[in-house]
């Protein structure tokens, strides 16, 4: 936030978040969403557990790679790591950022495409509910004809 000249002190953060535990603070907290929108930022939400839809994850991977390549002495002192981090961040170009964003958009479009295919398959499913369960131990057999029209998704 400092790099973006966003000045928000500790007192302001506490007032914004309120007396919530860290587990309570989420994307849906109106004070945080409202503050971000008031500052001109669009609040977007990424599905949980889909870091592949977040370009910053790819950029962070690039930063870590650069640090690893530059740290040939295995010096893990705070001063050395801070210096390496600052160097690595400046070495990530806007073209690299754009490439990561384009990759994420491609993944997102692929997810949407597969989601549509899955919805079509689910819509085609039909179920037969038999309320007259006489035997209880009878196994259901699946015929190949029952699976006609379905294909495996990659």
From TrEMBL:
Residues 130-154 are annotated as: Disordered. One of its GO terms (molecular function) is nucleic acid binding. InterPro entries: RNaseH_sf. Gene3D superfamilies: Ribonuclease H-like superfamily/Ribonuclease H. Residues 131-154 have a biased composition (Acidic residues). This is Tc1-like transposase DDE domain-containing protein.
